[in-house]
Design goal:
This protein has helices at about 5-15, 40-45, 60-70, 95-105, 140-155, 175-180, 180-195, 210, 235-240, 250-255, 270-280; strands at about 30, 35-40, 75, 110-120, 120-130, 160-165, 200, 220-225, 265, 290, 295. By secondary structure, it is α/β, with parallel strands linked by helices. Helix 5 (about 140-155) runs parallel beside helix 7. The chain starts with a helix and ends with a strand.
């Protein structure tokens, strides 16, 4: 808040005899690429994709699950109970206070949201990172939630689809956070040993320890357009090697060209693409899909 909000606007409203109504700060959203201002409802209706430029904004985790599953219907998986602030960590602010603020901001217990439902008739477990919860960082609670989701997929004998969006391991939990990397990797192997598909849809950003573990262990890797996908950031690499990196380095498109990603898929096409891929991987019967007025085989 600033002096215009705190002083000027109330004065103007009082002079005009108007009540000082609360106006949401995110009523208009600016496109990072073009600078275009987009009304927030129009952005939400377009799945948080800027209509003119096609720029993919960060999508809330619950909204992504609702968009993924048929008719928005799914069973939400409960967040496992884990130790809170085991290291009693404090930097410029207590870790316990940071957790409290993030919970109020997102209405979530931690960064992972998971659910079971059907996508074009294919049953699966969907797991999504909420980036607004401490940058989607991987801590004990997130690691435990991911493992429980994998266990549920194995119990249901269905595939799992992961939507990572993270800055990496959560520094406030130290080595306990880093231990989630091998734990989640073991969970991935358990799913594969059960003969069930694991698909990762990389979103912006996917970095650090998350990239170094379960985010890059899928049977197939999809990515949203323009997503930053890396371990160390571009600025850190440039400072280390003292060289300028190529334009678009570490984006979805760059990784696709260099074999790190299998497909770059627009957000609107993700549910249909996942359904086709999963039907192929699980050897389900083919379904007919209408494309430009012609009937095509969507899966074999």
């Amino acid at each position: 808040m600033n002096w215009i909000t705190n002083y000027v606007r109330p004065k103007i409203n009082s002079m005009l005899g108007r009540p000082d109504r609360d106006v949401p700060e995110n009523l208009w959203i600016k496109c990072p690429e073009t600078g275009e201002m987009v009304f927030h409802r129009d952005l939400e209706e377009n799945k948080w994709v800027i209509p003119a430029s096609g720029y993919h904004m960060k999508m809330p985790a619950k909204a992504r699950l609702k968009d993924l599953f048929d008719d928005g219907v799914y069973e939400a998986l409960q967040q496992p109970k884990v130790a809170q602030d085991p290291l009693k960590f404090r930097d410029s602010k207590k870790y316990a206070d940071r957790l409290k603020d993030s919970r109020i901001k997102t209405d979530l217990e931690d960064t992972i949201v998971a659910g079971v439902g059907k996508v074009r008739g294919v049953k699966l477990v969907g797991v999504v990172h909420e980036f607004n919860f401490m940058g989607g960082s991987l801590g004990i609670a997130a690691g435990e939630a991911i493992i429980k989701a994998f266990e549920r997929a194995i119990a249901e004998k269905c595939p799992l689809v992961m939507f990572p969006a993270s800055g990496g391991a959560r520094m406030q939990e130290g080595i306990l956070s880093l231990m989630q990397l091998p734990r989640t990797t073991v969970a991935v192997e358990m799913l594969k040993e059960a003969g069930l598909p694991y698909i990762v849809v990389l979103t912006n950003p996917t970095t650090g320890g998350v990239t170094a573990s379960y985010a890059m262990l899928g049977d197939i890797h999809l990515a949203e357009p323009g997503a930053e996908i890396c371990f160390a950031g571009k600025r850190v690499i440039e400072q280390t090697i003292r060289e300028k990196l190529p334009e678009g380095f570490q984006t979805s498109e760059y990784l696709l060209d260099h074999g790190m990603v299998d497909m770059v898929v627009k957000r609107h096409d993700i549910p249909e693409t996942l359904a086709r891929l999963l039907k192929i991987l699980m050897k389900k019967p083919a379904t007919a899909a209408v494309t430009n007025g012609a009937v095509a085989i969507a899966a074999q």
